[in-house]
C-alpha cells in the first residue's frame, strides 16, 4: 500500500516537473497562479463588496419608496417646534463612535430626565435599557416608535457607510462602557438597521441573548442570511413584537 | 561549467547558476556528455548561487534522459542552503539523491 | 489602571521575518502581537495603555487604533530606539505605584506572547515558531470570533475554505479566508494565517504560512516559515527568495514584482495582461 502511494506521488511529480522545462509549461503554471490569486481575492473582497452594494442599492430604494412617509413624519415631528432629526452617538464597528440618525421622538429636555427614569429599568442587568410608558416620549414619538418609524433616517447612515442594512444593533456608549471583552464581539462588524434578534423577538430578548445571537450572526454572515433577515423584518416591525 | 568523465562517472561542476538564463545551455552540454552512457551522474552544486524553475526543469530533463530502463544513479552534491531549500520545496529528492560530502 | 507596552525594535537574529512593517504588527494566529497584548492587558483591567513604538508608531496605530475596540485608551509614542524596561519606567510612567497594573504587567517588553514568558519570540526563527505553535490553544481569547477548535488540535475559521479531499492533521490552524485545495495535507504542526492559500497536493508540516501567502501545487513546506515569496528554514536558519510565483508567492503583490529578473518575453506580456485585468476588476 505504501509503495503504491509513493509511486503515485512520484508519477504525479514527474508530470508536474515536466512543465518546468518548457515555456508553455511555465506559462500554464503562472496562469494557474494568477487564477488562484484572483479567486482568493474574490473570496476575501467579494462578500464585502456585495454587502456594500446591497446596502447602497437597498437604502436608496427604500429612501425613494418611503419618501412620502419620510416627508410626512418629518413634518409631524417638527410640529412641536423641536428639531426633526436626533443624531445620537452610537458605537459602531470596532468600538468606533458615529452619529446615528433618528426622527426625534422625545421631548427636547429628555436626556435631563434620564436619571429619574433609570430606576424603572426593566432589563435587570443594568446594561441595556427599556421601560414601558416612558414619560419623556412625545405623543408623536409614541406612535413613531410603535411602528419603528423613528428609525427610518438610519437609511442615511447605511448610505453613508456607518451602518449596514443587516447587522447587530448599535449600542449606546453608556452600554458599551459596561461590556466585558466577550460582549465586545458584537462590535466586530458594521451595525445594522435590522438584526437577527429583532426578527426573532425584538426587545424582549435580554442582553446575554442578544450577544449570543449577534455572535452567531457574525460567525455565519452571508448574503443569504442577510436576505432572510430582511424578509422577516417588515412582519416583525408591523406586529411591533417586543417594542414597548 | 566543467564537465568531466572519470570512468563511468560523469561529473558536472562549477555551475554559477541554474536559471532561465543558462538552463538551455546546461541541457545542451549535458546531453552531448550523456552519449557515453555513464552509470553515475554527479552534479556539484557547491558553487551554484541561484536556481529557479528553469534550472529545475533542466535537472528534470536530465532525469528523463537517463531513466528509461536505465539504472543510472543521479546525485546532487553539496547544494548551498538556499538551493537545498528550493530542492526540498519542490521535492526534488524524489528524483535525485541529494548528498553532502 | 495603567500599563506600558514596549514594541520590539530590530532583532538581528530574524531579519527576514518582516516583509513590510514591524515585528509588533506581524500577524500571529490572525492578530498582531500588539493586539494580543492590548487585549490581554484589557482583560487584566487596564484602561490606559502607553505603547512605545520604535520607528513603527504609524503601523501600530493602524493596527490597534485608539483602543476603542477593547474599551481602553491607547497612547502611541514614536521613538528611535527600543527602551529597556527600566528606561521606560523612568521616562513614561508617573511617580508612585498607584493606578498601575501589578508587575509584570505594569511594563511589558513584548518579547513573548501573553502567558508564555519562557518562550521568547525573537531569539531565532526556531524559537519564534516554537512560541507561536505553543500559543495555539491560548489564541481563542474572549474577543475572538469565527475561530473554533473543530476537532482536538484543529482550529479552523468559519470562513476558511477547505476542500473535502484535503487532509488536516492536528495540531494545525487554518485562518480567516484561508484556502486549502484538494489533495493538500496541512499539518501536523501547520499554521495557515489569514488568506493563505495551499494549492492542490501541497504539503505543509511543522511550518508557518504567513498571511496572503500562496503555497504552490505539489510543493512541500517543511520546518519552515513561508512569508510571501520568502522561505525561511527555521531548522537551518537559511532564507530563500523564491523566484517562481507558482511555487511560493505573495497574493498581495502583482506577479511581475516577484518573477525571475530576466523573464521570458511571452510570459511577461501574458502576465501584464492579467495584471491589468485584475486591477480593473478590483477597482484599482
Brief characterization of the structure:
Chain B contains three helices and seven strands.
Structural overview:
The complex is a heterotrimer of chains A (244), B (101) and C (284). With 244 residues, chain A is mainly α. Chain A has one domain. Chain A has helices at residues 2-18, 23-78, 114-118, 139-146, 154-160, 173-176, 207-219, 223-238; strands at 85-91, 97-103, 164-166, 192-194. In chain A, the strands form two sheets. Chain A has a two-stranded antiparallel ribbon with strand order 1-2. In chain A, β3, α6 and β4 (192-194) form a beta-alpha-beta unit. Chain B has one domain: 2-Layer Sandwich (Transcription Regulator spoIIAA), CATH 3.30.750.24. Chain B is built from three helices and seven strands, in the order βββαββαβαβ. The mean pLDDT of chain B is 88. Chain C has two domains: 2-121, no CATH class; 147-253, UDP N-Acetylglucosamine Acyltransferase, domain 1 (3 Solenoid), CATH 2.160.10. Chain C is an alpha/beta fold and 284 residues long. Chain C contains five helices and 23 strands.
Descriptors:
heterotrimer; A: 244 residues; mainly alpha; two-stranded parallel sheet; C: 284 residues; alpha/beta; UDP N-Acetylglucosamine Acyltransferase, domain 1; 2 domains; eight-stranded mixed β-sheet; 27% strand
Can you lay out the helices and strands and say which pair or pack?
The complex is a heterotrimer of chains A (244), B (101) and C (284).
Chain A lengths: L1 H17 L4 H56 L6 E7 L5 E7 L10 H5 L20 H8 L7 H7 L3 E3 L6 H4 L15 E3 L12 H13 L3 H16 L6
Parallel strand pairs in A: 3-4
Antiparallel strand pairs in A: 1-2
Chain B lengths: L1 E5 L2 E5 L3 E2 L4 H12 L5 E5 L5 E2 L1 H14 L6 E5 L3 H9 L7 E3 L2
Helix pairs in contact in B: 1-2
Chain C lengths: L1 E5 L20 E2 L2 E2 H11 L4 E7 L2 H8 L8 E7 L5 H8 L14 E3 L15 H11 L11 E5 L2 E4 L3 E2 L4 E2 L3 E3 L4 E2 L4 E2 L3 E3 L4 E2 L4 E3 L1 E3 L3 E3 L4 E3 L1 E4 L2 E4 L5 E3 L6 E3 L14 H17 L3
Parallel strand pairs in C: 1-4, 1-6, 4-5, 8-11, 9-12, 10-13, 11-14, 12-15, 13-16, 14-17, 15-18, 16-19, 17-20
Antiparallel strand pairs in C: 2-3, 7-8, 18-23, 20-21, 21-22
Average pLDDT of chain B: 88
| Fraction of residues in β-strands of chain C | 25-35%
Report the principal-axis shape of chain C: globular
Strand/helix succession of chain C: EEEHEHEHEHEEEEEEEEEEEEEEEEEH
The total of beta strands of chain C comes to: 23
- Total number of helical segments of chain B? 3
Structural class from helices and strands of chain C?
A: alpha/beta
Question: Kindly, what is the distance between the CA atoms of the first and last residues of chain C, rounded to a whole number of angstroms?
Answer: 45 Å
Tally of helical segments of chain C: 5
Helical content class of chain B: 25-40%
The CATH superfamily of chain B appears as: STAS domain
Subunit arrangement of the protein? heterotrimer
The largest sheet of chain B has its strands arranged as 1-2-4-6-7
Contiguous low-pLDDT stretches of chain C (5 residues minimum) are: 257-269
Largest sheet of chain B: 5 strands, mixed
Amino acid at each position: 500500500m505504501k509503495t503504491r502511494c509513493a509511486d503515485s506521488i512520484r508519477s504525479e511529480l514527474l508530470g508536474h516537473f515536466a512543465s518546468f522545462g518548457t515555456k508553455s509549461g511555465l506559462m500554464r503554471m503562472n496562469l494557474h497562479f494568477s487564477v488562484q490569486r484572483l479567486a482568493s481575492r474574490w473570496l476575501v473582497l467579494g462578500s464585502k463588496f456585495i454587502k456594500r452594494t446591497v446596502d447602497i442599492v437597498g437604502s436608496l430604494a427604500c429612501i425613494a419608496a418611503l419618501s412620502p412617509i419620510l416627508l410626512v413624519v418629518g413634518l409631524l415631528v417638527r410640529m412641536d417646534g423641536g428639531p426633526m432629526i436626533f443624531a445620537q452617538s452610537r458605537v459602531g464597528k470596532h468600538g468606533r463612535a458615529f452619529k446615528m440618525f433618528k426622527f426625534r421622538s422625545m421631548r427636547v429636555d429628555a436626556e435631563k430626565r434620564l436619571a429619574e427614569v433609570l430606576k424603572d429599568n426593566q432589563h435587570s442587568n443594568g446594561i441595556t435599557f427599556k421601560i414601558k410608558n416612558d414619560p419623556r416620549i412625545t405623543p408623536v414619538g409614541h406612535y413613531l416608535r410603535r411602528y419603528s418609524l423613528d428609525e427610518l433616517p438610519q437609511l442615511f447612515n447605511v448610505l453613508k457607510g456607518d451602518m449596514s442594512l443587516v447587522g447587530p444593533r448599535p449600542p449606546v456608549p453608556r452600554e458599551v462602557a459596561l461590556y466585558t471583552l466577550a460582549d465586545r464581539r458584537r462590535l466586530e462588524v458594521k451595525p445594522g438597521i435590522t438584526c437577527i434578534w429583532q426578527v426573532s423577538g425584538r426587545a424582549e430578548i435580554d442582553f446575554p441573548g442578544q450577544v449570543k445571537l449577534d455572535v452567531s450572526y457574525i460567525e455565519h454572515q452571508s448574503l443569504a442570511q442577510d436576505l432572510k433577515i430582511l424578509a422577516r423584518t417588515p412582519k416583525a416591525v408591523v406586529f411591533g413584537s417586543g417594542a414597548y | 561549467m566543467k564537465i568531466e568523465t572519470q570512468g563511468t562517472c560523469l561529473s558536472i561542476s562549477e555551475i554559477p547558476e541554474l536559471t532561465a538564463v543558462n538552463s538551455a545551455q546546461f541541457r545542451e552540454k549535458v546531453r552531448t556528455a550523456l552519449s557515453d552512457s555513464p552509470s553515475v551522474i554527479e552534479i556539484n552544486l557547491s558553487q551554484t548561487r541561484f536556481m529557479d524553475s528553469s534550472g529545475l526543469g533542466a535537472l528534470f530533463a536530465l532525469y528523463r534522459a537517463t531513466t528509461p530502463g536505465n539504472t543510472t544513479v543521479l546525485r546532487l552534491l553539496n547544494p548551498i542552503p538556499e538551493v537545498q531549500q528550493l530542492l526540498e520545496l519542490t521535492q526534488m529528492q524524489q528524483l535525485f539523491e541529494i548528498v553532502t560530502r | 489602571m495603567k500599563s506600558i507596552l514596549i514594541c520590539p525594535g530590530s532583532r538581528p537574529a530574524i531579519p527576514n521575518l518582516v516583509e513590510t512593517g514591524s515585528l509588533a504588527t506581524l500577524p500571529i494566529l490572525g492578530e498582531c502581537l500588539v493586539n494580543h497584548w492590548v487585549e490581554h492587558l484589557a482583560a487584566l483591567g487596564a484602561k490606559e495603555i502607553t505603547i512605545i513604538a520604535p520607528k513603527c508608531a504609524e503601523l501600530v496605530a493602524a493596527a490597534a487604533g485608539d483602543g476603542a475596540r477593547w474599551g481602553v485608551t491607547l497612547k502611541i509614542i514614536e521613538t528611535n530606539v527600543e527602551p529597556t524596561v527600566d528606561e521606560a519606567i523612568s521616562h513614561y510612567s508617573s511617580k508612585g505605584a498607584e493606578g498601575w497594573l501589578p508587575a509584570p504587567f505594569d511594563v511589558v517588553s513584548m518579547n513573548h506572547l501573553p502567558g508564555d514568558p519562557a518562550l521568547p519570540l525573537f531569539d531565532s526563527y526556531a524559537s519564534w515558531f516554537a512560541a507561536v505553535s505553543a500559543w495555539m490553544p491560548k489564541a481563542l481569547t474572549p474577543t475572538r470570533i469565527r475561530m473554533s477548535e473543530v476537532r482536538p488540535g484543529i482550529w479552523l475559521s468559519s470562513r476558511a475554505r477547505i476542500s473535502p479531499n484535503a487532509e488536516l492533521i492536528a495540531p494545525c490552524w487554518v485562518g480567516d479566508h484561508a484556502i486549502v485545495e484538494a489533495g493538500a495535507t496541512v499539518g501536523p504542526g501547520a499554521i495557515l494565517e489569514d488568506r493563505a492559500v495551499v494549492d492542490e497536493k501541497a504539503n505543509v508540516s511543522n511550518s508557518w504560512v504567513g498571511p496572503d501567502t500562496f503555497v504552490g501545487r505539489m510543493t512541500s513546506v517543511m520546518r519552515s516559515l513561508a512569508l510571501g515569496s520568502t522561505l525561511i528554514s527555521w531548522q537551518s536558519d537559511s532564507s530563500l527568495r523564491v523566484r517562481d510565483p507558482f511555487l511560493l508567492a505573495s497574493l498581495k503583490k502583482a506577479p511581475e514584482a516577484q518573477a525571475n529578473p530576466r523573464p521570458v518575453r511571452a510570459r511577461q506580456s501574458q502576465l501584464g495582461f492579467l495584471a491589468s485585468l485584475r486591477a480593473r476588476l478590483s477597482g484599482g
